[in-house]
Design a protein that fits this description.
Two copies of one chain form a homodimer. With about 425 residues, the first copy, chain A, is of the alpha/beta class. Chain A has three domains: about 120 residues, NAD(P)-binding Rossmann-like Domain (Rossmann fold, 3-Layer(aba) Sandwich), CATH 3.40.50.720; about 160 residues, Dihydrodipicolinate Reductase, domain 2 (2-Layer Sandwich), CATH 3.30.360; about 80 residues, ACT domain (Alpha-Beta Plaits, 2-Layer Sandwich), CATH 3.30.70. Chain A is about 35% helix and about 25% strand. Chain A has 14 helices and 16 strands. In chain A, the strands form three sheets. In chain A, strands 6, 7, 8, 9, 10, 11, 12, 13, 14, 15 and 16 form an eleven-stranded mixed sheet that branches. A three-stranded parallel sheet of chain A has the order 3-4-5, sandwiched between helices. In chain A, helix 5 packs parallel to helix 10. The two termini of chain A are about 40 Å apart.
Amino acid sequence: MGTVGSGTFNVLQGNGAEITRRTGAEVKVAQVAQRRANPACDMGTTAITDDIFAVATNPEIDVVVELIGGYEPAKELVLTAIRNGKHVVTANKALIAVHGNEIFAEAAKHKVTVAYEAAVAGGIPIIKSVREGLAANQVNWLAGIINGTGNFILTEMRDKGRDFADVLKEAQELGYAEADPTFDVEGIDAAHKLTILSSLAFGIPLQFDACFTEGISKVSQEDVANAEALGYRIKHLGISRRTDKGVELRVHPTLIPEKRLIANVHGVMNAVLVDGDAVGPTMYYGAGAGAEPTASAVVADIVDVVRGLQVSPLGYESMSDMPVLPMEDVETAYYLRMMVTEKPGVLAKVTKILGDGGISIEAIQQQEHHSAQVPVIILTQTVREGQMNAAIAAIEDLVEVSGQVTRIRVENLDG
Amino acid sequence: MGTVGSGTFNVLQGNGAEITRRTGAEVKVAQVAQRRANPACDMGTTAITDDIFAVATNPEIDVVVELIGGYEPAKELVLTAIRNGKHVVTANKALIAVHGNEIFAEAAKHKVTVAYEAAVAGGIPIIKSVREGLAANQVNWLAGIINGTGNFILTEMRDKGRDFADVLKEAQELGYAEADPTFDVEGIDAAHKLTILSSLAFGIPLQFDACFTEGISKVSQEDVANAEALGYRIKHLGISRRTDKGVELRVHPTLIPEKRLIANVHGVMNAVLVDGDAVGPTMYYGAGAGAEPTASAVVADIVDVVRGLQVSPLGYESMSDMPVLPMEDVETAYYLRMMVTEKPGVLAKVTKILGDGGISIEAIQQQEHHSAQVPVIILTQTVREGQMNAAIAAIEDLVEVSGQVTRIRVENLDG
C-alpha cells in the first residue's frame, strides 16, 4: 500500500457508486497484502495480510492487483496469481517490459487477463487506445514524452534558463524524482515504457534489451537555448518506427519543431503521438504519474475485467518476427555542437568530413564567443546513425576541434 | 459507398492481414448495399445490392455497417439489423444523438452491440477512452474542438486576419465545408457530438434538444484579434460539465487561454479535453473527419465486435436522471464588445449596470477609434448566464450604446 496502492484503494472506495453504475457490479477489495501499514490510507475493515502471496491463492479473489513495483517478488506474485486462475492488473512497467513475454504466455495458458494500462503514461489510456482504438491501422510510428521527471527538468531548463543539476535537485525536493534518479534521467524508465508501446503498436515480442537508451543528464543549458533559437524544443522522447528493415526502438533527447503540439507538453505531463496509416497522427495527453492518475488506469483495468473485456495483452494473436533495428541503422537528422579553434579552414574541414560521409547540412552557425575556441552548431539532414558515428569520430580527431562533439537527434514528427 | 464507405472498404482490404494478425479472424465484406456505384472504390468480386435492407436481413452477415448518414433510412436500417440479431457499427452522429436512446434500448433487447466510435471526432478513439479508459473516474467536465470545418475557419481567421465569409468560401472550395454549411458553422454537428460525449461522461440519456447551440458565423475578425491581444484564442467548443444542479451542455465560440494545449489545435484537427476526478485533465487529438481517419474508427468498432468486446453503448448499466442545466443557469465568464458614444460617464453607466447585476469586471479596455463611436471591451468574472442576459439587455437600452453587445463566453479550462 504505497502511493499507487493507496490511490487505487481510495478511487475504488470514493468512486464505488459510479463504478457500480457503469458496470452493474460491485468491486470489493477482498484483501490487502502489505508489508507495512500506510497511515495515509484508511482501509476500514478490509482484511489485511502481510503475506503477499496470500492474495494470489485466496479463493475469494478474482483479480490480483500488483502494485509492488520492481522485478521480485512482483514476478513471482503475478505468476502465482495466474497459476491460481486469477486475472492480474499491474502498474509495473519494468516487470512487463522485461518479463512480459513469459507472463503473457503463462496467462494465455491459464486463460486469464494480464492488464497493465497504468504501466505506461499513468492515467492516459494509451494501451487501450493503441491496442483497440487504433486496431484498424498499421502503425507507422509513435513518439512519446513518457517520463514526467525528465519532462519537468527539460521544461524548467527551457523556461527559466536553469541547469540540469539545479533542476534535478529541485525535482528531488518536490518528490518528482527519486533520491537515485538514474531510472528517470538516464531513460531506463522511458525505455521500459517504450518497449511496451512498441510491442503494442507493431505486434513484436517485448525486447527491452534491444532498446537504445540515452538520458538527459548531458543536455546542457546551451543546447536548450540553441534549440530554441533554431525554432525547436528539446524533449526526451521514446520513439518507435516501422521501417522496411525493422523496428526502431530508441529513447533519447530530441529536437522537435516548437510548433508541434507535443512540443508544448510541459512539466510533469506526458503525451504519446501515434501515427497510423489510416488515422494519421493522433495524440494522447495527461498525467503520467501520481497516486490518483495511476489509480485511474489501474481501476480502469479492473473495470475491464468486470465487464468481461478480454483482449490478448499485446493485442495480437500472432506476433511478428520483424527485428529491432540496430541503432547504427536508424536514420534521423542531427544537431551537432562542437568547440573549434577560430582559424581559417576549420569549417571547411568539418563540412568536408560530413560531405564525404554522405551527410547533407541543413544549417550551420558559428557563434560569437570571447575566446580562441568558438562553438559551431550544425543541423544535418537525415542520415544513417552509423555514418554519423564515423563522421563524429573523424571530426573529433581534428586538432582544431577540442573535446567531444555534442550530438542530439532531430525529429520532424510530421508523418 | 460514399467517402467513408469507400474508406472503410479500403482499410478493411488494405489492412486485412494486420487485422487478422490482431484478431485471429478474417473480416470479410459479405455484401455492399449502395444506391449508386462509386467509381473511386474498386470492390472486386464483392456482392453488391441496391436494396439497402438486404444487408440487414442477410443471414450470412454478423455486423451491419451503416454509413448512409442522416435520420432516414439510416434509422430503419439500423433497427432492422438489430431486430435481425446483427451487431451494428455506425458513424452517424445525428442518428445516435437524436435516436440513440431508442436504438440502444432495441439493441439491449436483442443482445447486440451498437458501436459508433466514428460518430465523434473521427479517428480519435474518444468514445472508448471515456467509456472504458476513464471508467474509474467521475468526469468533472469535458471540452472539445469537435468540428473540423469550424476550427479550420477560426484558425485561418486568426493566422491570416481573414474574415469569416472569405474563409468559409475557401473551405467550401477545399471540400472541408458543405455547400450548405449550416450544420458545421451553426454548431449543429458539434451539438450532435457533444450530446453523445456528455451521455458517455455522465451516464445521462441522450438529450440533443437540450443542447445550447451557438455557431461561429457571427465571430468577427475584430473579436479574433481582441482575444489574441488579451492572451486568448477563440475556439468553437462543445462543453459539458457536471454541477450540483445538473449537467451543462453547450456549444459556442469560446475564449480560452492561448497557453492551453487545446488552444494550439489548429486547422481541421479535433481534440477533446476530459477532466476526471482521479486522472485530472487528459486530451485526445487527431483528425476529426476524412475517409480514412473515419474508417479507422469504423473498423476499430468492427474489430471490437470480432474480439467479443461488448460494453453497453453509453458505458452505464444504470442511467442518471441528473437534468441538463438550462443555459440561463450556466455559470461562465464573458468577453463583451460594444460600440459606445465617446463622452464622459458612459463607462460609468455600463459598469454600474454590471455591478448592480452582480457581475465583477476582470478587465476593461476602451479602444482608440477614429469616429464618435468607440469600441469598449470587457472581460468579466464568472457569473450566471441569466444575470448576464439581463445586464446585456440593460446595456443595449442605453442611448450611448449603439447596436447589439457582442458576447463570447470565456473558459479557463484549468480544472
